[in-house]
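Question thread 4412

I'm putting together a teaching handout and wanted feedback from people who do this every day. The idea is simple: show students a protein as raw sequence, then show them the structure tokens that encode its fold, then repeat with a second protein so they can compare. Below is the first pair exactly as I plan to print it.
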Amino acid sequence: MPGARSSKGITLGEMRHRKHETEGFPTPGGKVKLYSSVMEHLSLAPLPECVESPLSPVSTPDLAGRFPFILMIGCKVKPFSTAKAATFPNCASSTPSLAEMHPEAARALGLADGQSVVARTPHGAQRFYLRHDESLQPDVVHVEHAWWFAEEPGPEHSCFRSNANLLFGHAHFDPHSGTEALKCGLCGVEGTDPQASAGRSDPPDFSVLAGMR
């Protein structure tokens, strides 16, 4: 029966789309709200505000000298659903744990495409393979999240080797939602011993990534 619910609260039947055309939006007035009366009622800013990141070249210039890149994490890799597909041999073997940066920035540091690197922040350091990506700004580094290695001994499965979460501390959270600033940290990138690899001993073949990102 369309719209019926199971005992576990999962909607069964045909998915409904464009409900706003007949039911409106889930706001007090049923319309798209640019000025949030709900936020205003909570004594919060009713309009979006641009706030400088707590770790940035502007707010922490003393740190930016040692950690010159803006760090972001969380861009999704198509074969994966967060960390789940790491157990699939074809995915785990073909998709290395990556740190990505603009090739000009990488070359300025003497870092080659495919080599093992360390991404370092004021809170910690983790190992990845470097991938040159011309779509990134030269001052931005993207690090993949949710990495662990199913082939490594449990129960940890080397989950602290290429763990992007460990590059962030516990001091800076959005005061309204409680989320961490995972798109705007600071980091440095440095080369490491090629044998001290992030999850494998041989350099990755990036051709397998075509169409994945």
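The second pair follows. I'd like the answer to focus on this one:
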Amino acid sequence: MKVENQFHDLKSDGFTILKKIIPKSAINNLKENIYQSTFSNKMKSPDKILFVANLFKHNQSIAKYLLNTKLTNLIKLCLGEHHKISFVSSIINEPGTSRGKWHTDWPFNRHNAGHIDSPYPDAIMHITTVWMLSEFSHENGGTLILPKSHKNSFNPTSYSKDPILLNLDNEMNVTGDPGDVLVFDSRLWHATASNLTNDPRISVIIRFAPWWLNLDVLKPGSRQRKFLLNSTKLPENVIPLFTKSEFNNLPDKIKPLMIQYLNM
């Protein structure tokens, strides 16, 4: 599919899927590598979900695939020539993972200190990509999405209480093969789906922001973070910073996209 058609799908439906971004021959080693890094460095997360923020501090094996032109051309159409990476997280949904609440991603989630208040303008301001290292299926809990929900001027976290273990009309599981990448507008309503199999579902979540979007609230110890945490009394994601040696190991073309997370 041409990039212009995928951009159209993303604007219309809120998502598209890029096929075979990671070659089949690389999947098994990559999958095992990232599983081990995630297990060894896991952070606090919901039951039966393993999670690591800024995976590239520990494992950069997936980084070179971010240079695939199918992805880079689509991100440029969405966010412009000058953009940056806001999050790189590994997420493993273990067998028995329960269905989660409907939500939207940062910076639209009102349960975070740094968020954009609704009503939202109809503009792409942040992109989420889900890198499938396992097959995504109905059985193993391929991410639940609500197509076209990015067009709403509000989202589930706009309510005082999340409504949101409900089954919604038109919800669907994302399905795809290892190596495929789900790309969606971060305003799109989505939720964790139950993993009913005996195998973990392994993925890496990489999010992109336009050059102008302030990421300082995500940086540990920043003045902006301290101000918003104190004034809103809400929690916020935190991105562990790179050491110089960790940062220097990144591919040269990825470094400008993550320079904001270098511990100077």
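Top answer:
Good format. For the second protein you could add a caption like this: The longest helix spans residues 24-40. The CA atoms of residues 102 and 191 lie 5 Å apart.
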